[in-house]
Amino acid sequence: MSSIIACPKCSRDMRVPAEAGGKKIRCPGCDAVFEAPVLAEVVDDASFGVTEKVAPPVHASPPKAGSSRPEGTSGPPPLRRRRRFDEDDEDDFDVRRRRRREETAGGMPLWLIIGLPVGGVVLIAMLVVGVALLNREAEQEFALMNAPPPNFPPIVQQKFEDFPPPVNFPNDPPPKFFPPDDFPPKPPPSPPPPAWKKIAPRAPAAGPTLTEVKTIALEANALAYNPADKHLYAAVASSAANNGNTITALDPATGDVVWYVNVSSDPAVLAMADNHKVLWVGPHGASGIQRIDLVARKAGPLLPFHVQRHGAVFAEDIAVLPGSADSVAVSMFSKGVSPRHAGVAIFDNGAPRAGKTQDHTGSNRIAASDQPEILFGYCNETTEFGLRHLYADGGGIREGRVAGGVIQGFGNDIVYAGGRIYSSNGAVVDAQNLNLVGTIPTQGALAVDAFNKRVYVLAGDQRGNLNAYDTETLTKRGSMSLANYPEIQGSLVQLGDSALAFRTKRQIVIVPLGQLK
């Protein structure tokens, strides 16, 4: 047991044992010698459970000069102990003194002063290591992507007889083996495209004799000319005031109605066979096509289309195959659907061939070539704007090459003549290579006379002009104002070698070629 007393000379705290009470001791600070006070015994501290000795009052000589004790105070200096100690708590004072030394002048602990720089260095090191690992992973991934393919061992093709027979239980029926020939065969590869033949254009037949423009008051959806009987055929709309839902034959020289035949609701598409004896009709009020016998002047029954996934389909365009009046290619569409295209199919006397082209994006407009095996198609309702080769054979029709962007624009039509494809937006394309040859600087319905090297364009804009261009140089050769014929609809048709016909909203207009100066 020890206690802390103060030196009476320099007031320095000293720790002295209890046995030194009443004995002389020396101060280690100022070497002053004085008598240590005797400690009195105090019994049982309730909080610590120990017994302490407290120094009784000691009378000593007056303090020397320089002492910090006030004047008039006698006796030994007072004890400086502030709290009780036991044998297990003797070093508390030194511990508190050490902690005070560790505090800085600003009150920041020493561990914090040292830890901040060390933590920053560790964090930077971790970031550097992380970036290095990411770079290494990226380099490994790049190396794997660009590595040559592994040299795998060749695949061994096992034969049918190489497989072991199956294990049979006693009550199982005998196994059945199917030789390879019984499995479904692989589909045959697509046949090569048909060979192109260069066929010279034929001279147009003699047309009607006209000296001035003639108009016929008849509302028509489409026009077709037959050079054999020199009749202009009109598909009369269901909303027309006269001859609605009919195919009406007109004499273009006089404007008279020669004959007509009733057909299905709202005829809208016409296509003349190259033998000039059959006219095909595509109504928009009925799903199917009709055959008109021009010699017998009789309409056949409606040849219906098969219902497709969007319901009934209708004829958007028809092209009669060369050399066969009863074989036609039909571009079909669905009402109330966008895109409306429902594919292209070939019909023989109304019976469809097995294969047809896809729907959605395909050939909205079609044109026959000089050969029955080759047709052309154009997508005019999506931004694909694909110009297509179509190949026909006994299995149906299939797509060949597709050239996107050669012809551009919604709603455009195409016409084939003399090895070229002419578009209503002015583009002229080589039919075999699908390369752009040039551009006619006018847009509108077309009629092409390849033999006489003329292409006629019906410009149904505000100017309302009928223009003639050279097919070789694509320069203008003649023009006629159509200001007196408003509401031009289109359907430009050449009437032999003498005239052109087109339709407006209320009438049919026939123009002699001599008017194009």
Account of the protein in words:
The chain is mainly beta and 517 residues long. The protein contains two helices and 35 strands. Strands 12, 13, 14, 15 and 16 form a five-stranded antiparallel sheet that branches. β23 and β24 form a beta hairpin. It is elongated, with a radius of gyration of 55 Å. 30% of the residues are buried.
In short:
The chain is mostly beta strands. Helix content is 9%, strand content 35%. It has two helices and 35 strands.
Write the layout of secondary structure elements.
Elements: E1 2-6, E2 13-17, E3 24-26, E4 33-35, E5 40-42, E6 52-54, H1 92-102, H2 110-145, E7 214-216, E8 220-226, E9 231-236, E10 246-251, E11 256-262, E12 267-272, E13 278-283, E14 288-293, E15 298-299, E16 303-304, E17 313-320, E18 327-334, E19 341-348, E20 351-352, E21 365-368, E22 374-378, E23 386-393, E24 396-404, E25 414-417, E26 420-423, E27 427-430, E28 436-439, E29 445-449, E30 454-459, E31 465-470, E32 476-481, E33 488-495, E34 499-504, E35 508-512
